[in-house]
Amino acid sequence: METPEILTPQERAVHTAEFNMEIAIGYILQIGVLLSVLLIALGVAWRWLSTGILGMDYSISGMNFFEFVLNDIRLMLQGALRPRLLVNLGMATLMLTPYVRVLASMLFFAFVERNRKYTLFTAFVFIVLTYSLFLR
Amino acid sequence: MVAFLPLLFVSIIAGFVGAMGGMGGGVVLIPALTLIGIDIKHAIAISIVSAIATSSGAASAYVRDGITNLKVGMFLEMFTIIGALVGAAITLIAPTRPLFIVFGIVLLATWWSLMRQKDEQWKPVAHQDRLSNWLELEGSYYDQAAKQTIEYRGARAYLGGPLMFGAGLIAGLLGIGAGALKVLIHDLVMGLPPKVSTTTSNLVIGVTTLAGTSVYLAAGQIDPGLAAPTIIGVVIGAFFGTRTLVRLSNQTIRTFFLVILIILGVEMIARGIGGV
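The joint structure predicted for all components is written out below.
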């Protein structure tokens, strides 16, 4: 319960750009996690309803993250939508969540705050993460 | 294969405790997963992917409350992600027993040092060094429990950064968020208020665990059948854990944290000696 004299983050957002960024990051993280959990739960529920089995049993063999995502999207476009694919997409969404958050922070520091120091720091994190997602 | 419902239940508990302590939940999750019959390397891989969910879910609420310090987070992430990549790479090729013992000792040492200063309230940093000043490590937030705005400055970034490499290393190595270590570095080295250190740690963990996850994914260690119930469970647990934390005082969080640290420390050492 909030008392009336406390400014909500939305109200504070009117005053400074930094709070805007905080709200944007908050939503990126929240939507990413919720979407990912929703996709995974749908996949599990679908399998449960169609086969009567609760749970799945498979593993992802040596692919890097981008291959994993592209493979899933290709299967989906072929109309091969099935429980396993939803779970995979959920996991891909989960991994993309902090990645997109870092990207958004980088753009914010570069174009809104025009803070060269922090643009560089964030770019470094973004490049290392991109590299790590290409590992296989 | 391990049943869905026990996995879900264990994950809900781990997610709740993780969010409250500013941890990814892996510290509770990994022991529990091995107890229900999952081998340690798979448990580590599942734990680290689920820690992305716990920490990001918790961080989303804190960031919007204006408690998290984005600059402190971004600066420290540069160190933690490198640590996580190195740590995960080591786990893939190394036996883990000695590491459990070392980690247990680290946890007990931090428990001891926190215990000593338990009664001291957080004190603002008196002198900010030049590096921390150049890094713009400062901020303020509205404290709901104390009903006032708290202003603070971070210090000793020259120590905090390199130590964060170590925290990232542990995170990648053991598949945990290593939030306990991150919070300690924020608290004791950089002089941040406990709430800022806990919430900023959550933000940093999301990125750190992603770096670790990518290594385990590439190695084929992430099993979606096990990860699915785990991710769903930790998110449900973290949802409730987060809502509990924002309303509690700094002292309550600290006490809770101390209990968790000692249990985990003893447990880690016992398993290292006993052969996991």
